[in-house]
Amino acid sequence: MIWLRSSVVLLLFLTLITGVAYPLLATGLSELMFPYQSQGSMVKQDGQIVGSELIGQPFTKDIYFQGRPSATMDYPYNTMLSGGSNLAVSNPVLDDEIKRRVEHLRQFNRQPNMPVPVDLVTASASGLDPHISPAAADFQVQRVADARRLPVKAVKQLIRNNTETPPSEFLGEPVINVLKLNLALDNLQKKKQ
């Protein structure tokens, strides 16, 4: 009977330490040291939350840059059902989907002969990626500039200003957060008016 009592005491002690004390300490320290990140890296404009730096959003209007396709269920960028399509490279369904996306992007961006960057036609593993490559942004420049009646040079400068480069080449490739780029476009448009 003594072993049962000591087992229960140990279970309660470890539950308090690992299930209560440690999570409270970790949460408190993250709130104190990294308040922006611990709250989900929420992006605000004019005092309103417009999204998160960490999760892509569906931009469908021609005045905005579009991100990677989302493979989440029910609706694009659904955080509750994130995940890739799990279609193999050899799967004809994936081939058909990519061909359909390429054709749509060429028509939407009025670029019939330009190669479409791979990140504009393939979903990320989570289906929530908020970034695109500089090549994917360049592919869309003319459409966005025309739709907003902005000089292509100004839109390209915004792309350069919003390109995040890793500290070293072997740590990743340059990327652009689509939400931040589109907010920068909105701000540029406001300044011009």
From TrEMBL:
It is found in: Cell membrane. GO terms for cellular component: plasma membrane. Coiled coil: none annotated. It comes from the Bacteria. Keywords: ATP-binding, Cell membrane, Hydrolase, Ion transport, Membrane, Nucleotide-binding, Potassium, Potassium transport, Transmembrane, Transmembrane helix, Transport. InterPro entries: KdpC. NCBIfam families: kdpC, PRK00315.1. Belongs to the KdpC family. Part of the high-affinity ATP-driven potassium transport (or Kdp) system, which catalyzes the hydrolysis of ATP coupled with the electrogenic transport of potassium into the cytoplasm. This subunit acts as a catalytic chaperone that increases the ATP-binding affinity of the ATP-hydrolyzing subunit KdpB by the formation of a transient KdpB/KdpC/ATP ternary complex. The system is composed of three essential subunits: KdpA, KdpB and KdpC. HAMAP family: KdpC. This is Potassium-transporting ATPase KdpC subunit.
